């Protein structure tokens, strides 16, 4: 392998591992297990891999892409269509309406207030919230966090950066005891998850380092 091809192979492997890693986040808690209707809110840079990760572990039948910029939503759909043969894909601008029939919701925005009310959500679904990464940002309503099983990437990180977790704690909607770290959820999952599950991530440098170390060991030695 040449010096020129090494970086491209490493990058390809990194993308593959990230997708698989994100997919594992869906595997245990995502309910119902046969879920195949995804609503994606936010058609930005994170969107493509969010859909791919969900589709890898929950093959999709229906996808709704929500974005205030209809052109950006259409561009994402066009990029996904070759990979999602047979999936019914539509664009929308109203998040509240779009989540009503969803079984999985992925939020990848910079919203500063909840994207939808808790009352718009079905009784059973899984929500990924990856976009809000500052205390001033919020994608999810307190009521969803209060009524669902909430998995986070790392407690100290979300207490510092996750606006929806910080807001819900300050409002008394949840307590820290209601938050389950991802490592615990994967290694010692609860006997049963609630009908609504939420995964909130702000991104952890240690996870990135671990992936980089694995890739370096595999491809650069």
Summarize the main sheet.
8 strands, parallel
Query: In CATH terms, what is the architecture?
Result: 3-Layer(aba) Sandwich
Please count the helical segments.
Answer: 9
Rounded mean pLDDT score? 85
Q: What percent of residues are in strands?
A: 15-25%
Described by the principal axes of the CA atoms, the overall outline is globular
- Secondary structure class reads alpha/beta
State Rg.
17 Å
**Assigned CATH class:** Alpha Beta
Q: State the order of secondary-structure elements, H for helix, E for strand.
A: HEHEHEHEEHEHHEHEH
Tally of separate domains? 1
Which strand order spans the largest sheet, edge to edge or round the barrel? Answer: 3-2-1-4-5-8-6-7
- Termini separation comes to 11 Å
Low-confidence stretches: 1-28
- CATH fold group: Rossmann fold
CATH homologous superfamily, by name?
NAD(P)-binding Rossmann-like Domain
- The helical percent reads 40-55%
Report the strand count.
8
Protein name: Ornithine cyclodeaminase
InterPro entries: NAD(P)-bd_dom_sf, ODC_Mu_crystall
How would you describe this structure to a colleague?
It comes from Streptomyces himastatinicus ATCC 53653. InterPro entries: NAD(P)-bd_dom_sf, ODC_Mu_crystall. There is one protein chain. It contains 9 helices and 8 strands. The protein has a single domain, classed as Rossmann fold, CATH 3.40.50.720. It has an 8-stranded parallel beta sheet. The N terminus is likely disordered. Helix 1 packs across helix 2 and helix 1 packs across helix 9. Helices cover 42% and strands 16% of the residues. With 221 residues, the protein is α/β, with parallel strands linked by helices.
């Amino acid at each position: 392998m040449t010096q020129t091809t090494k970086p491209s192979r490493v990058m390809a492997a990194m993308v593959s591992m990230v997708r698989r890693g994100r997919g594992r986040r869906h595997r245990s808690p995502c309910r119902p297990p046969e879920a195949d209707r995804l609503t994606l809110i936010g058609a930005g840079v994170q969107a493509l891999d969010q859909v791919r990760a969900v589709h890898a572990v929950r093959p999709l039948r229906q996808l709704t892409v929500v974005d205030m910029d209809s052109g950006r939503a259409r561009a994402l759909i066009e990029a996904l269509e070759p990979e999602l043969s047979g999936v019914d894909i539509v664009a929308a601008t109203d998040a509240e309406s779009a989540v009503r029939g969803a079984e999985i919701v992925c939020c990848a925005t910079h919203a500063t207030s909840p994207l939808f009310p808790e009352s718009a959500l079905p009784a059973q679904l899984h929500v990924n919230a990856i976009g809000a990464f500052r205390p001033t940002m919020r994608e999810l309503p307190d009521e969803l966090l209060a009524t669902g099983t909430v998995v986070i990437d790392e407690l100290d990180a979300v207490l510092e950066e996750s606006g929806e977790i910080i807001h819900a704690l300050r409002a008394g909607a949840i307590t820290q005891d209601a938050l389950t770290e991802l490592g615990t959820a994967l290694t010692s999952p609860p006997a049963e998850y609630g009908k609504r599950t939420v995964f909130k991530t702000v991104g952890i440098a240690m996870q990135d380092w671990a992936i980089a170390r694995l890739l370096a060991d595999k491809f650069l030695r």
